[in-house]
Recover the amino acids of this structure.
């Protein structure tokens, strides 16, 4: 195993004395520190050689490569699936609107009989309704293959028509609920859950093993500091493991072929920084636990417990906490409220429409308004119902916003949460990007309804030319600075956690028991 | 001798600070998750009951209207909560709570609770089942990994064996001792859970519930036995505590962490599901063009019209003694049913095949089989959700038939027809009976077999690992 027998130059100056309690950084800049860097380099080199001889690093590297390759492959397959679905709905949209336009043209030319009122594309209620729907789509971001994130739960394409928001959002992407429950084997999972375990597997016995085998005392009888030894050992593991993670990520991103797209390089850089900071945190934790000076087995148990707490228990606990402090109202209740509103308003029927014309005389048709026109009446009723249930929907949104506000500072309790959110953000599959998308869907929906609603109330007919001026969907990506800022905040949280764990490790190492 | 060894192990456990701490944490988590699960169950149950009554009242009080416009107004049905769901919420957060039974359309379930939660929910819901599936096995590993290796490392194993203690007695004694320690944590939690169930009371199928509870306990006991035997077998054979621990943690990670996710992706690959866009387009195409692509809706309508006229010997629709509109609506419904059964039925079969992949992977990872059994017994797995969805769809079809029949027989073509409360009352409420434990277990034979196999294999492994020839001091 890794018997570290460093033999630096014989001690020529007081700096060579064994003073394990001080870290190399203590003396940086002073003349005495100059001789420490070569020692660190030697420890580093020696550790690398002994790790290579031990083959444990090789096994970790192979395992990591296999897991990462499978994960990136899965993520890429999912991103392709979404891209295909989006391409499909867009093709259908243009085919649908093309055939409606053609039909209007033929009717105008008299070469085709107008169909029944419910299917007549000249009527704005038909052309703007589900027959003329168009999709608002959210294209996968350049780094989408890195994290499935929330993309399996939220839609990446929404059919927009004059129907209500609830109807538009009712059809979710098809997925076995068992898979939503279990989650996916994506690269984010490998980094957030498994990468720490690989780090801990390499780092749980940095010193304890040398102590148990009796080589530590021997090593420290040489003119070398304990801090230098630990730093060298950590670096010899940190550089290959973190380097491998970034290398695998880079290969995966290059294989995806979208790294060159706008924002791609930047997202990858942020992802890489997260991988470095998160890795540094777990190495620091390993050093801190090792610094307690217990046996290898005890250290391993303690590290497993810390991992479990930070990666599994704290996130689910925070979720339960947020849900019980700011409970979201029940969907069942919302359905009931919607029905209640619909019932009251529908009973009024044409009265609702008549009142609408009173309030908006500018939208009354030029001739006499036909209060019995089914489509116009239905649209007026729908708008009234929506206005009535808006407060109910707002209650959901405020409660969700409160949950997010509550969790925002608490997530710093778990570096795993920070890493997951940052990686999702870099991959463009985090919740904030979906909220950004849905707010644009709402704006597009409003524009669509504005365009058709006015024409429905005026009881106008659409001409072929009108089909060319329909509101078009264009997704505007979230400002790069906003997503970037979120990632940087998480990154700072990770670095802070790493620094804290490292400081605890440093303090503990000063009191480290040298002998077995 | 076995009893003496077991007693010694229990005494040692109780003196061990690690056990007291870890045990207290696990017991605390179990009680907290049971309490929050219970609270959640009660709240949701009450909400669904209230919503059910409200929508029924809306239906009955909808006033006079044409039956078909009532059919479009439709009814909402809410997924009932199973009594044991407070132990294991299963897929509940990822399936909608209600569906709208409306004319022409088989609507999806809406309102998935996970969408009304923060992204943290994806790290897993903290439920009693989660504690039992993830944390208790880890606790067993942490308490048992050094059972043999520590004795060997401190030299007490040599002493024991020289006294003539048989290694197998030592092995089974340690199993019993650890099991006794675990029982101190799990029995109180199980009693609290049982008390909560009895408190709930009032469920019609008391026998069914008792059977489910018993099965739940049995499945988890087998699961813990697997981890106990594997842990001790590894400890008996491992060269050092360190190797035993690393190996066992690796097994734990593989079975509770890696396998479930890897199985999801594998299942998606082997049995892909269509995208929503694709499925919607297929359904719409089959409705318009016919399932075979050659029988468009208007051709089907004309055929029905000819057949009806011929049957009544009439020449015009207006001369028929019945209302043809009702017949045509019902024919549309029936054609829709064929299309839905083909497409949504096909989707359900794909889901079942995907779940089959998870079951197959459970031969490598017992947690998958246990999770599947636990959800099934608690009534919160995908199969039981689909059972309800199917019942709801059948109810929708029943409603459409009653309403369309009313149009056929009580109205005439071209005349305005309004029906009233008598008709609305003829539409029954959905009387859903959740499938019994036999139905559930019939679908879980594979999982049960996997768990039993794991229990046998792990016990066999312990038996072999503690054979006198193999245990060396």
């Amino acid at each position: 195993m890794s018997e570290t027998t460093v033999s630096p130059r014989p001690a020529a100056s007081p700096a060579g004395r064994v003073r394990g309690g001080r870290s190399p950084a203590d003396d940086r800049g002073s003349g005495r520190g100059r001789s420490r860097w070569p020692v660190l380099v030697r420890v580093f080199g020696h550790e690398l050689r002994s790790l290579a001889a031990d083959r444990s690093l090789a096994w970790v590297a192979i395992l990591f490569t296999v897991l990462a390759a499978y994960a990136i492959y899965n993520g890429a397959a999912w991103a392709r699936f979404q891209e295909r679905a989006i391409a499909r709905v867009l093709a259908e949209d243009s085919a649908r609107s093309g055939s409606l336009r053609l039909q209007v043209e033929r009717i105008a030319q008299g070469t085709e009989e107008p169909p029944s009122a419910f299917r007549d594309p000249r009527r704005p209620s038909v052309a703007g309704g589900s027959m003329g729907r168009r999709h608002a789509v959210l294209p996968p971001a350049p780094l989408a293959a890195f994290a499935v994130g929330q993309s399996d739960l939220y839609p990446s394409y929404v059919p927009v028509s004059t129907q209500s928001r609830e109807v538009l959002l009712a059809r979710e992407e098809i997925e076995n609920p068992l898979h939503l429950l279990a989650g996916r084997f994506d690269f984010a999972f490998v980094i957030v859950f498994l990468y720490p375990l690989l780090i801990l597997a390499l780092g749980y016995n940095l010193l304890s093993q040398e102590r148990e085998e009796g080589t530590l005392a021997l090593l420290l009888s040489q003119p070398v500091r304990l801090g230098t030894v630990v730093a060298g050992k950590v670096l010899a593991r940190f550089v290959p493991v973190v380097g491998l993670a970034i290398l695998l990520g880079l290969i995966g991103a290059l294989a995806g072929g979208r790294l060159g797209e706008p924002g791609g390089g930047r997202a990858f850089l942020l992802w890489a920084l997260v991988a470095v900071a998160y890795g540094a945190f777990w190495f620091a934790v390993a050093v801190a636990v090792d610094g307690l000076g217990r046996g290898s087995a005890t250290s391993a148990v303690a590290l497993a417990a810390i991992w479990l707490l930070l990666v599994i228990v704290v996130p689910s606990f925070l979720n339960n906490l947020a849900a019980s402090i700011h409970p979201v109202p029940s969907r069942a209740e919302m359905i009931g409220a919607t029905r209640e509103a619909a019932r009251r308003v529908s009973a009024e029927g044409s009265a609702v429409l008549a009142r609408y014309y009173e309030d908006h005389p500018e939208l009354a048709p030029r001739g006499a308004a036909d209060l019995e026109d089914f489509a116009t009446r239905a649209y007026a009723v729908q708008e009234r119902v929506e206005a009535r249930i808006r407060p109910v929907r707002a209650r959901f949104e405020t409660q969700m916003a409160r949950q997010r506000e509550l969790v925002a500072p608490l997530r710093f309790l778990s570096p795993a949460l920070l890493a997951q959110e940052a990686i999702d953000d870099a991959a463009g599959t985090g919740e904030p990007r979906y909220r950004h998308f849905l707010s644009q869907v709402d704006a597009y929906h409003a524009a669509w309804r504005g365009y058709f609603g006015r024409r429905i109330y005026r009881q106008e007919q659409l001409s072929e030319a009108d089909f060319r001026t329909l509101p078009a969907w264009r997704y505007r990506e979230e400002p790069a600075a906003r997503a970037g800022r979120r990632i940087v905040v998480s990154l700072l949280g990770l670095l802070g956690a790493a620094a804290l764990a490292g400081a605890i490790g440093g303090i503990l190492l000063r009191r480290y028991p040298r002998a077995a | 001798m076995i009893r003496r060894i077991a007693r010694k192990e229990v005494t040692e456990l109780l003196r061990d600070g690690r056990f007291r701490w870890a045990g207290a944490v696990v017991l605390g988590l179990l009680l907290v998750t049971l309490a929050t699960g219970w609270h959640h169950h009660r709240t949701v149950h009450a909400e669904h009951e209230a919503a059910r009554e409200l929508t029924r009242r809306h239906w009955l009080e909808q006033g006079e209207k044409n039956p078909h416009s009532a059919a479009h107004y439709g009814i909402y049905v809410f997924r009932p909560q199973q009594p044991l769901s407070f132990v294991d919420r299963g897929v509940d957060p990822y399936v909608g709570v209600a569906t709208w039974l409306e004319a022409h359309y088989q609507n999806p379930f809406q309102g998935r609770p996970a969408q009304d939660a923060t992204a943290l929910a994806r790290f897993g819901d903290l439920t009693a089942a989660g504690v039992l599936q993830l944390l208790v096995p880890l606790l067993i590993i942490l308490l048992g990994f050094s059972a043999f290796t520590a004795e060997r490392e401190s030299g007490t194993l040599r002493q024991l064996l020289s006294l003539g203690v048989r290694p197998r007695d030592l092995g089974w004694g340690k199993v019993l001792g650890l099991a006794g320690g675990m029982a101190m944590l799990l029995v109180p939690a199980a009693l609290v859970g049982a008390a909560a169930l009895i408190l709930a009371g009032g469920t019609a199928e008391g026998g069914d519930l008792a059977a489910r509870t018993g099965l739940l306990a049995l499945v988890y006991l087998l699961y813990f036995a697997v981890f106990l035997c594997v842990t001790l077998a590894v400890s008996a054979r491992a060269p050092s505590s360190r190797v035993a621990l690393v190996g066992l943690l690796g097994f734990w990670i593989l079975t509770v962490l890696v396998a479930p996710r890897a199985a999801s992706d594998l299942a998606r690959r082997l049995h892909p599901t269509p995208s929503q866009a694709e499925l919607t387009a297929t359904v719409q195409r089959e409705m318009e063009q016919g399932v075979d692509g050659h029988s468009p809706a208007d051709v089907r309508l004309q055929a029905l019209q000819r057949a009806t006229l011929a049957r009544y010997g009439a020449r015009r629709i207006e001369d028929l003694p019945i209302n043809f509109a009702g017949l045509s609506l019902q024919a549309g419904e029936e054609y829709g049913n064929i299309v839905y059964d083909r497409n949504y039925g096909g989707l359900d079969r794909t889901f079942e095949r995907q779940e089959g992949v998870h079951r197959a992977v459970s031969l490598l990872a017992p947690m998958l089989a246990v999770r599947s059994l636990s959800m099934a017994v608690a009534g919160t797995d995908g199969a039981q959700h689909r059972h309800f969805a199917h019942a709801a769809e059948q109810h929708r079809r029943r409603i459409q038939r009653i309403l369309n029949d009313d149009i056929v027989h009580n109205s005439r073509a071209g005349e305005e027809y309004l029906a009233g409360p008598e008709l609305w009352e003829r539409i029954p409420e959905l009387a859903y009976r959740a499938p019994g434990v036999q139905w559930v277990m019939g679908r879980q034979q594979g999982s049960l077999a996997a768990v039993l196999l794991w229990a046998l294999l792990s016990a066999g492994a312990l038996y072999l690992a503690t054979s006198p020839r193999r245990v060396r001091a």
Q: What stands out?
A: Chain A touches chain B through 84 residues (CB under 8 Å). The longest strand of chain A covers residues 134-137. The longest helix of chain A spans residues 56-109.
